[in-house]
Structure formats: structure tokens, C-alpha cells
Amino acid sequence: MASTSTTMEQHIAVFGGSGSGKTVLLSSFYGAAQEPRVRRANRYAVTAEDRAQGRTLHRNYLGMRDSSTVPSANRFSAATYRFVIEPSADDLPKGRSKQKAAKPLGIVWHDYPGEWFEEDPSSAEEEARRVATFRSLLSADVAVVLVDGQLLAENAGEEERYLKALLTDFHTGLYALRDDVLEDGKRLTRFPRIWTLALSKADLLPDLDVEEFREIVIGKAGGELDELRSVLQSFVEDPDALDVGEDFLLLSSAKFEPGTIDVTTRTGVDLLLPMTAMLPFERFAKWASTRQRGAQVAEQLLKFVGPVIGFLGTSKLMKSNLVGAAVSMIGGGLGSKAVSFATKKVAKVKDQAEAEREFTTRVLARFAEDLDRGVDDRVLRRGDDA
Q: If pLDDT is split at 50, 70 and 90, which confidence band does 315 have?
């Protein structure tokens, strides 16, 4: 099992209705990362901390690649997957084994059953399990809500029928959970603050780019999106530091044709890691610098920004507006508690081995380039690019 002592760990929560493609998406994400050519191109490896989970995901991927077999959906099954991003075997410093190599990046993927937003709980036990599962993903900074491309295509010209139902299900489901999640009604400082809408099975709508997808969602179900934003704001302290439906993504786990599955033809899947790692840094730096915030909220915002600054502090990225803004933010009037917290985090990270910092800096720089490429290809629309 891979080490769990990662220096920087980010969480992503994935929501989607039944049949929206969550299992295929996760299997495609992990399986493709195991391909030797992909590891060589990325210069990093993605490893599942739970080997049994990793084998299952890889087997699902190989079934698609070699036998054109679609993995079975895990109905009503909530799961958490932990992945470590580490130097690939070809990229290890000379004289260092894989066991001794730096493992500074971790990604945790929370999969929330879509059926729980579509159907009422069958028992008090199941209701309690839904609440406990939702609480477990509150550590995520990025949440992805899947819009099923197949259902969108089936409702061509009347997309509002599907979109309104989808967003209303999420809205009412979250509202039903709120009182149980908020202890004594106290709003949360730790909560997913970036909610991205992603079109799964985008290969079924090949002429649709991300801007057109956004226009369909806003034009056909803008009111329901506003209601979803409102209920999410009711969960979180400082609701202004929350983006719901500002970021949009096209996703296709493979190209599916009768009798064949081409796993080499994918869209947007390779952006999930960069989004999880980089969007919180970009967005939290902006939010924390826009106006004075409470100490607890500022501390949560800086909790992730601080380590990234530490890693990038000696790199050429230090000259970028993004990092410069974050450094100015830490030096600004956020309150002594938050500034002290960030300073300690940066100092701690800067004490790490140079090789570790170089690896992390390189990976984060690659992620930033990937996000820019996704925007240029009209696969990703970032809210901060508006």
C-alpha cells in the first residue's frame, strides 16, 4: 500500500444521477493513468492507496479496452478512493527507490450515489447513512455535478425537462440533509466551495462545446441553478466565497460505438486532477484577497493556498500574478491568526527536501498548463475567466 503521509492532499466530490457514468468515469481516469505511455508522458504515476480498489478500477478499464465491456454501476454504493501522485519509475532521482521517493500529492475522490437524490430513504438506517456519507465529503473543495449527456440528447429541443428535474432533485436532496448536517444550525467553514457542472458522455453530443453547454444549462434551467446555489449557500459560513455553476466541463470517458469502446478517445478526464489541485488555489486566493473575512473562514481558505505557495516559492511560477496575489493576500489584513497559520504552513513546506519541491512544482506547473489548454480547446470554462 502506498504511503498516506502526503504533504498536500486535495478532495473532489462527484455527484451524478443513476446511470450518469460515475463508475465509468472513475475507471477511465484511473485505468488510463496506469498505461505506460501515459505515465511516461506525464512523468508521474497515479497509485491507489487501497490496492483492492485499484485492481477493481483497473480491471474495469481493461474490460472496456480489451473486451468492450462496460463496468457495472454501483447503485446506492458510496465510496471514497485515495490516490497518490508520485514520480514515475523513469523519473526517479538517481539512487532513490520508489519507496524513498517523494510522495507530496494526494487526491481523494468521494463518490456520492445519485440515487440518494432521486429516491427517498427506505429506512432510518439508510437516512443516517446518507447523512454520514455527505459529512464525509465535506473536506472536498471541488464538487462535480454530472449532467448526463445521453439524457440531454434524448431531450433535444426540450432540454429543460431533464435539466430542471436534475437540479431540482439535487436542490431538494441537499435541503433535506441540511438540518442533520449542520449541528445546532451552525454553518460550516469547511465545505465544497467550487461546484462544477460537467457534461458526462459528451461524445454523444460531438458538436457541443463547453460554452454552448453552459448556455443550455443557464437558458433552460437557470432558475433551478439559482435555487441550488441558494441551498448550498445556506450550508456555508461566508456564502460569498462559493462558486456554483461558474465552472463548466465536458467529459467523455471513452468513445462508445456498437460493439466497441475506444478508451484512447477521451474528453476532459485528464482535467480532473488539475482542477482538483489548482482551482481551489486560484479561487481561494482571489476570495481571501477581495475583502476581510472571518478568521475561521480565512484560515480554511489559506489552508490549501499556504502549502502551494511554499512549493512554488522557489520556482519561476513565483513571478506569476496568481502566486503574487496569494503572497499579497497573506501579507494583507486577514487577521493575525490566519497570517500566522499560513506562515507556519509555508515554513513547514519549505523545509521539505528539494527534490520533493521540484517534483510538486513541476506537476503543478503541468496542471496549470493543462487547464489553460482545456480552456483553449473549449472543453473547460473557468469561472475566473469570465
A: very low
- Using DSSP's 3-state secondary structure scheme, residue 218 falls into helix
Task: Answer for the pair 127, 153: CB distance below 8 angstroms, yes or no.
Answer: no
> For the ranges 57-66, 87-96, 218-227, 228-237, which has the lowest average pLDDT?
87-96
Half-sphere exposure of 163 (CA within 13 A, CB side): 27
Q: What is the pLDDT of residues 271-301, one digit of tens each?
A: 999 999 888 877 876 776 665 555 556 666 6
Q: Which residues of 62-88 are buried (b: 16+ CB within 10 A; e: fewer)?
A: ebbbeebebbebeeeebbbbbbbbbbb
Could you give the CA distance from residue 244 to residue 332 in angstroms, rounded to a whole number?
27
Closest CA to 191 of 330, 11, 338, 15: 11
Backbone angles phi, psi at 280, to 5 degrees: -60, -40
In order of 120, 239, 332, 334, the CA distances from 338 in angstroms are 41, 19, 10, 6
Contact between residue 86 and residue 101 where contact means Cβ atoms under 8 Å apart: yes
CA 154 to the chain's CA centroid:
27
The closest alpha carbon to 33, from 373, 363, 353, belongs to 363
User: What is the DSSP code (8-state) at residue 268?
Assistant: S
Alpha-carbon distance of 339 to 306, in angstroms, equals 10
User: Which residue bears the cell 500574478?
Assistant: 321
> Do 263 and 203 meet the contact criterion of CB atoms below 8 Å apart?
no
3-class secondary-structure state, position 244: strand
Kindly report the pTM of this predicted structure: 0.83
Q: CA-to-CA distance for 37 and 56, rounded, in angstroms?
A: 21
